[in-house]
Design a protein that fits this description.
By secondary structure, this protein is an alpha+beta fold. The protein contains two helices and eight strands; from the N terminus they run αβββββαβββ. A hairpin with a 7-residue loop joins β7 and β8.
Amino acid sequence: MNALTLQNAIVSDLKDLFKDRRYSSPTGTAIVSVFPQNLPKRESEDDDDPFPYIIVRLDAGEIESQTDAYAVTVLLLVGAYSDDANNQGHQSVLEIMETIQRHYEEKPRLEEQFVFTDPFHWALQDEESYPYFFGAVSMSFNLSAPRREWSELV
């Protein structure tokens, strides 16, 4: 098990979680696209914006000692679109983040290899960026850590 396997598992899990949910997009409505680490590069300026989306970004990992789990911190970057004159697109971002929180609180095991651990942090963007809205989630998963092989003492 490694962080890249975790990232791919989260991408797959979130695609499944949001497969039946539609949100506003620049071209009408769309399901949430989920990307590992970064948004794909745009081929041209005419390409549609990828909203709504979640980026699953590996942030940091650590193993404190030989008896501790391998802890990996993952950032989920959420982007939503709303051209509604009420300028309340943050509601879609918050709904996406709270759906993710509820999902991992209720089902903390992922593919029988990874375990979501507290805390779950989220934040909304401070600055105005109408009609685009953003938020971020920070969460941690435990993975099995590689262990030192012990040889017999002579």
